[in-house]
Amino acid sequence: QVDLVESGGGSVQAGGSLKLSCAVIGKMYHIYLIGWFRQTPGKEREGVAAIDNGGITRYADSVKGRFTISKDNANGFYLEMNNLNPEDTGVYYCATRWFGFDRGDWSAEYHYAYWGQGTQVTISS
Questions:
Q1: Structural Rg of the chain based on CA atoms
Q2: pLDDT tens digits for range 87-99
Q3: What is the per-residue pLDDT across 37-50, written as a single tens digit (0 to 9) for each?
Q4: 78 forms bridges with which residues in the sheet?
């Protein structure tokens, strides 16, 4: 069993920044990928960024150059978000996958086994 707990959401004005955190509680040895997803109003949940055990990263085109995914050595994963705009508003989730980038689309949510409860991000114009 793996539990994920997101934190760091909030409300900021356009152009501002936020840093989300994801704490993974449980056995990490079978986790190859951590992904960040977001559910924005009126849209399907989409992959934002992912990082594998070796630190290799992937980003959605909409966030490249603005968001940075990272991890520490203590089962902590982060999403630093800069130059935010109202289209970034939504609920952000972290999730775990049991295989790496070489097997399937990293942004496909059905590949992810465990999910956090989500944290709300609201960007005002």
A1: 13
A2: 999 999 999 998 8
A3: 999 988 999 999 99
A4: 21, 70
